[in-house]
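User: Earlier you gave me the apo prediction for this protein. Now I'd like the version with pyridoxal-5'-phosphate bound, so I can compare the two side by side. Same sequence as before, with the ligand SMILES added.
Assistant: Got it. Here's the input I'm using:
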Amino acid sequence: MALKIHTSAPWTLRDAEDYYGIKRWGGNHFSIGEDGGLCVHPCADHRKIRLLDIVNEAASMGLRAPLTIRVQDLLRHRVTQLNEAFRTAVAQEEYSGVFRGVFPIKVNQLREVVEEILDAGEEYGFGLEAGSKPELLIALAALDSKHALLICNGYKDAEYIRLALLGRKLGKNIILVVEQLSEIDDILRIAKETGIEPRLGLRIKLRTTGEGKWATSSGEDAKFGLTTGEVMLAVSKLKKAGLENILQLVHFHIGSQVPNILTIKKAVVEATRFYVELHKLGFNMKLIDVGGGLGIDYDGSRANYESSMNYSLEEYARDVVSNIKSVCDNAGVPVPDIVSESGRALVAPHSILILEVVDRISKSTPFHSLNGKKKKKHKKHEVILALEHIFNDSDQYGRLERFHDAQQKKEEAQTLFTLGFLDLETRAEAESLFWKICADIRQKSAAARGYLPDELAQLNTMLAEQYVCNFSVFQSLLDHWALDQLFPILPIHRLDEKPTVETVLVDITCDSDGKVSRFIDLEDVRGTLALHPLQPNKPYYLGVFLVGAYQDIMGDLHNLFGRVNEVHVFLEEDEEDGFYIEESINGARVDKILEMIQWDGEELARLMKKQIDRATKADEVRPREGVRMLEMYEELLREKTYLNPREKSRPKKTK
Ligand SMILES: *Cc1c(COP(=O)(O)O)cnc(C)c1O
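And here is the structure of the complex with pyridoxal-5'-phosphate:
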């Protein structure tokens, strides 16, 4: 059942909380203040920051929406939560190994994110995971520790391997995870050449496959990992070389956002069996790496559904620990230390994308006649009369029949227009009447009880207004476009007002795919989101939540919209609702974006100048006008890529 907004009862903050699911997906991290403003509680306690305050402060620094807000204390809180969950599980299960997590850099490579995680994780010996040479270059420099783990995954060439061994030479705790059989020979050769002893892990292709969008990351058809046969080959190579001591870790990764805890349990048991067998074969086994996959409950439904998960962080930790323990105990093999590579679960919650709604598009524009009211009644076209009749005579037939009749007449009007029998004005009038009828039917359906036929239920979506948001789905919400991933979206203010407009969100790219028309709901998915009517000259801000994993780092440059502005916020302890912006990052400038596709800004300006000079010489443009044209062109090259909705209120430069 979709949550309905009651039409009569007064709107309360509690209604807003329920409708947007704030407590369900946000836990104790979000609340609504008395003034209807959304607040973030970075540490899930009483301390809070009003999001609108951050947005206003950022705007005063020249950083307008679209804006990424990173709540740094919330990121730290997640690191603590993950480590404490495993510490508790280890204690509860009387497990004799320890937990040693790593952060997979690919999930968010931003410097401040990686540094904050390392800082918050220091007391837990938290490390890093790299999946490529560039990521390893970051990890080697950023992780200045001989204790914390640095796990090397991904495809490896000789340079990658040399780089990892360089780290070993510096005494770092680096493990090269063999993902392809061919890597073994390369690693052994380079180790011999350099005289540096590597430490190895094997990534296993488990039979257990994940569920959800990333199911194909594991199983026999997966891109990565060794089959059982390949494991045997690798093992015999190592034995032949007398290198039993360097193989220490078993690794698996069954895909991201695993919705079902049963999948995780099965995978852990299967991987631990590999661990136990390798131990029995005489290898120096010390670690099991359970990869990523720990989910985020984007829709707050606690369900085995792709945008959700049916378990908690605590349950995950307990299940990993207890299953490893029971397999090892059964085999009489000492338990390993446990590594996890949770990325999404660690970083998704800390980042909030703020969007400004800059326009609305409504299908049901009221009809404007060129002749005003002068138009004579007898001139009305038959199809208009028919539609008027359907509109006025609302009780004669059932709602569904009325809808079908209206559809027929609207299509008739459109066909007549195409064939040349209907003028523009009459077609506009017919369409306007059609939408009025639809709105009337929707209103009557909402008031009625009982079963609602699909076609009428669709009316909500058909009649939805489009709210135009100043952002690009392709830059900022890539997984929504590519994978139908859902994210919680709601206004960050005016939550004390009832939202009365059913909307879908569209972005400013020239792509019809650049929209958000699927929203979180407790069961199923909503086709529209109720928002507030726009007020003239007052900004209306939406927050998109849980976007810190993959989204704000992976975006592409569709239509050349670049990275958005960004502020990094910390709690200010001594002040009620206090915060400070420690760092701000300007969004991408147009000329920087153009540079990436080989358009040099100065060269473009030169080409432009040539044309303007020519027009000036030909007296088509006055000299002063020409100078101003070029100035504007150059100025826009240095600006951000997004709309500037407040241009009118900007003070004019005077010369
Ligand atoms: C992507 C990836 C991760 C991170 O997965 P999450 O589901 O985001 O935690 C961990 N390990 C490996 C090998 C990966 O490729």
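For your comparison, keep in mind: The CA atoms of residues 387 and 408 lie 10 Å apart.
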